[in-house]
Amino acid sequence: MAFEDNRLLPALFGEHDEHLALIEDRLDIEATPRGNRVALRGGAQACEIARQVLVNLYGRLERGLEVNRGEVEGQVKLVRGRARGEGEADASIRTRRKVITPRSHTQGRYIRALKTHQLVFGTGPAGTGKTYLAVATAAAALAAGEVDRIILSRPAVEAGERLGFLPGDMKEKVDPYLRPLYDALYDVTPGNLVARGMADGTIEIAPLAFMRGRTLSSAFVILDEAQNTTPQQMKMFLTRLGEGSRMAVTGDPSQIDLPPGAVSGLADAVTRLDGVDGISHVAFSKVDIVRHPLVTRIVDAYESGERKAPENG
Fold first, then answer.
1. Which numeric CATH code is attached to 6-83?
2. This model's pTM is above 0.90
3. What is the mean pLDDT of residues 221-229?
4. Going by fewer Cβ within 10 Å, which terminus of the chain is more open, N or C?
């Protein structure tokens, strides 16, 4: 393979050719850089996948977009998925800070669902991008004038404490629960615009309990950690949907912090609303994890059920 713009090659190959090494490891091939060329050796299909991955990554750099290890991993998954007949995943989200492209086939389906359905459930293990992509889609919709405001919410149950017993004012009480939503929002939107949006009410971050009695019109509403809702709370939240609004509900069914025996509102809603027009459910799996590769191995270990019980002593 030959590339015309030598200035882009350091970012394409990665520091000390780490991107090429990653492609080699994932596809079991050899990728040898020689000036502005890369020689690929290995199985015919694996080499074709590697070629397409490099073409796609080079195209990102030509458009001024970033290429990092995550993008390399994502492109390998996407191109390999297409080779297996899993279809296209050419969805993207353009926010004020960056352009976000899917890193797996499921992420592509999820992004398209978020853009075309009024209510989307995104379920699956940690690290699959469920919340981040929902927040990015909401930020893009606000910037494009498709909605007038963003509302981000979470049930505040993880700590096993009632908010009234926690120190500080209400903002100080709920901020720790909502920090992941802040992080995602600041990553896709300039900080000054986030601050302005929070000041004028176009961006609102609040615990689930604050949703009761409201009608949320012309808004993009996201409920994160929804596995920690009860069926009654979930019904309350879903029926807040107003004219011109869209909702995304995300959660990991394997990480429920409700009292033993309690039914998760997320699982209940996904079952009850299956097949309802205007609603989409995208289920992620461990193959969609885009965090550190160790996260995938951790999920594998917990799913295998082969852990030894701790010994007394």
1. 3.30.1370.10
2. no
3. 94
4. C
